[in-house]
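User: I've been going back and forth on whether these two constructs are worth ordering. Before I decide, could you fold them both?

Assistant: Sure. I'll take them in the order you sent them. The first construct and its structure tokens:
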Amino acid sequence: MRLPVHRWFRYSAGFSAQWARAVLADSGARRVLDPFGGSGTTVIAAEQSSVSGMGVDVHPFVSRIAKAKLAWRADPDILLERARAVTLEVQRARRVEGPSSPLIAKCFPDTAALEELLRVRDAVETLRAGDAYDELLWLAFVSIIRACSPAGTAQWQYVLPNKTKSRVLEPRAAFESRVRLFADDMWAMQDHLAAPGGQVFEADARTLDGVSDGWADLILTSPPYANNFDYADATRLEQSFLGEINGWGDLGPLRKMLLKSATQHMGRWDPAEALDSPLVEPIRQELFEVYSRLADVKRAKAGNKAYDLMIAGYFFDSAQVWHALRRASAPGVKVCYVVGDSAPYGVHVPVERWLGDLAVAAGFKTWNFEKVRDRNTKWKNRKHDHPLHEGRLWIEG
């Protein structure tokens, strides 16, 4: 990923920044909203397209990353000067205190390298001045944590302490290199300084508190797929290193806030809240049939994964999102949802059709689906043999 600013932190996203800019150009939109803003792909693409952009995400850590990216308008020369001060502070080799999380010990077996990375952390915090450069330096540090650990990373960003990678970076050099990359990108973005500044804030897509009624004339997003990916776990290494969490169990409060797209998010949630809700009326019968099939399969499986609860919760939450989006959208809005269908335990879930029906029930007019690619075609990766696909759910409002 070589796009300026977008590349500052890698986070799971359903589409590329180039494609987002193409959609913005084709749509003629003036105000674009991303209710699952992640690390800011849509909002930064909007800034590069001279469009007003707003991104919302309920994950506090990820929202902070996106906000830090929006500081690209700062002076790159001052950023480099501030980074040199951080480097000098690191060279003083002050005593450091490591995080108590057991994950850090597993992922950083080299004590000297760990201490050097902790000195970078402490220097960034010690030299805070209450301005945009604080967050740029924080992001530069956060973005090198994985690169300085020999621990592997799975396809979806889960950290793998028992797997190792061959290339591990030295912390101080990695930080200096990262800041130079930030500065280069900030210089490259100078042509966009006159564009409307993007907005990112922490909020729930199911309510969109803080978004004015009728604000957006384009919705461009990729919601969490109903595929059991735990977004709370995706940044566990970084949050553990920063001392925000101590272990996997500390992610519980965050999981309760996230869209119910993973079995880890379910807790003691009662599916009757979804199955009895008028919000799912357009799909109620089919949803209940799939829910019942998954419950039956679950009882026969050793893993006993709560896919039945996950699917019920996913569409209940999605129905709330559509109602929030309808409120926040202007008449005639165009919506693009990048989504994929799902087949937990081999039980197919027609995700795009159900989402489209829920959108129409929330007040949007029509929907159609543009398939982009087939999924689940590599036999080595199959947990079931049901063909899946991914594409763009287009909705007119």
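The second construct, handled the same way:
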Amino acid sequence: MSTLLWTSDAMATAMRATTQGTLPDGVTGLSIDSRTIAPGEAYFAIKGDVHDGHAFVAAALKAGAGLAVVEAAQRDKFPTDAPLLVVDDVLAGLVELAHASRARLNAKIIAVTGSVGKTSTKEALRRVLSAQGETHASVASFNNHWGVPLSLARCPASTRFAVFEIGMNHAGEITPLVKMVRPHVAVITTIEPVHLEFFAGIEAIADAKAEIFAGLEPDGAVVLNRDNGQFARLQKQAKKAGISRIVSFGSDKRAEARLLDLSLHATCSAVHADILNHDITYKIGMPGRHMAMNSLAVLAGASLLGADIARAALSLSQLEAPTGRGFRRTLEVGHGEATLIDESYNANPASMGAALNVLGQAPTGAHGRRIAVLGDMLELGPTGPELHRGLNEAVTANRIDLVYCCGPLMRNLWDALSTGKRGGYAESSAALEAQAVAAVRAGDVIMVKGSLGSKMKLIVSALEKRFPDKAAHEEAV
């Protein structure tokens, strides 16, 4: 029998809910998606930008949900015997439950924000801490106004370490989330020109990320990127917030978590570093200088939580890229094979540069080429055209052979490319799909990347449909 995450009584008390129908003793989990809910979980009828979760309460209960959390204004839509917790506002109720979760926790908590690398850093922390005690971490990129409270409310009381990702698009969004999480350690990976559509400049982005200091527990610590141009500004903000334990990471000789040497390989990296006066050499199971730099923050953060640095470093060898964030597949192409690097989940200038660097490091087969299939980087404001055009420098530096572009912003890169590097251009990913698929031949390495709104996953799916995954095919045989 599954362990109860919450008793029904505790949920009702925390959310100040009234009850309807016969409730179970408790629930084993929390869900906001009726399509994936597991039997025994509680369903929260959140109102999203497109759908109102109340429309799916019946489906959730039919799928085995133990109870549903609904708003009072809509309770009459459901049978009187339906197991319901009724609140004024479902999202507000979830936030209250998250606060109750934090109050019962004895765990050491770390929160991660930054313009780039939040999810990969969070996943690395999950990996290294899980080897040293029961660890809870947010799933996927649950880092916004509903993702953070859902992740916190899902945290079992027995947890030893908890890892939360906190994101933002606008100033003021991090403060309520970090005050809910109340971490013992806060990590800011880097500050880059992301979401410029909503900010006056990069300094304003740094100030918004610095909101994470507002919720730090007394005597907590922050981990900051010493190599980043906004380090001094963030350091000043941390001190202003009364934080005395400020740990920096990077290649700067003053960093407490300092990169001493780095060897980059096609599918991994070897790192020699000084982490809080521990001289250590370790392997990361993912390629790229950006991963090596973030690993310094991971080890420093884990150590500040009380984890063993040597064991944590050993765990980094097991890292794997998630789908859409650098995940690799070997595709069968004719009698040979090609490599697909799926970076389709999101993109900004910094992550695009890092991905092109990884593509440049990737070995091709005989007569193979390095092919970049790129979609628009969104939310860059007036600087968007210039930042897209500027990618040509990274394309050249990393010896990319062919570039396929889609979207009105990527037209700026297309125009800047030399004729020999132009693969194809289209206004949308759907229109580019056939060109990109037709270009692939044995020996190629293809990297697909763009902002989520650019829908580059369409091209990844088309490549996977046209060319079988070699590993899956061999298993089937």
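Notes on the second construct follow. Confidence is low (pLDDT under 50) at residues 473-477. The radius of gyration is 24 Å.
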